[in-house]
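FAQ: What does the model actually see?

It sees only this:
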Amino acid sequence: MPGLALLAGLNAALLLVGVWAPVAGDAGAHLPARHGMLMVLGFLGTLIALERAVALRSAWGYAAPACLGAGGLVLAAGLPATLGAVLLADGAALLLALYVALYRRRGDTSVAVESLGALSALVAALLWLRLDVPALVAWLVAFIVTTIAAERVDLARLALPSGGENVVLALSVALVVAAGVGLLAPDPGARAFGAVLIALVVWLARYDVARRTIRSSGLPRFSAAAMLLGYFWLGLAGAVWLLGGRADDQASYDVAVHATFLGFAMSMVLAHAPVILPAIARRPLPYHRAMWVPLAVLHAGLAVRVAGDLAARPTPWQVGSVGTVLALLMLPPVLVTLAARSRRTAPARRTALERRTRPQPDPEGAAR
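And it is asked to produce this:
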């Protein structure tokens, strides 16, 4: 289900930038207005909920990704947007309940931060019943940023100073409050939202193990590069909101939103995919240098897109946009190929190991 939401969202992206798309005309007329919800809640939301359901190890937890995925399918298929919004809201509410269950089990501050993210997703889905995405985008950003921040805190626990988790919790609360202020006072709310984003990025980047593992090799270096690039783009988005307030012009809005969801969120998906996807699919996903290709294309395309925005040049904006779409289309085939390759080679490795460890016959005993 998240794969179909991704494809529909990418098709919508191509339509929005005015280039050829596989589904166009009347058949794709419904997609552009649903692009943001398809990508953030239909795709990323379903993946996040699925990973958390696996962690909960309880059958009811899978209702959250099921509802989010179903909402994405409804939006992709052109069915009433209200039905899709209700399903997305149901999925977000179930995700919030899932986090409550996890918090009762573990009592971790990082789970409380994730709960704020689920609450933000729920608010975004409900607001979409009345408002357009630009008016509620801060809630979608809060959902993604708090969820990823909680994950980074959980992984960097040993490197954090005393009370470090509480700092992230406080900043996450401030981010959600700023998103709420933005509904009543859009310009001050956007500036406050940007300031909190920058503070959160600076704090996370300071203590993230990626600053050390970037000097290693293999998977640790790849993941670190993806994470540090993600922090850069999120910091840029925060600066746009802080300095520009509510982005009334299309260029500022485009830079802030896509720096967040492409530069930060999708980069973090690439960074965590080799660790999280095996837990979901129960299949190993070994690191391979091919993973660098979609990462490089994603960030190069985004850089070209942002340059086109800043220069008010439509051609580089379109070229960069197509580049980011291609990067996201590359990702599933690369991951599936590596997983299948690992599955084929695993029996061969086990056979070789068995041959090496099998007891050898005693020549003298055989002679006797």
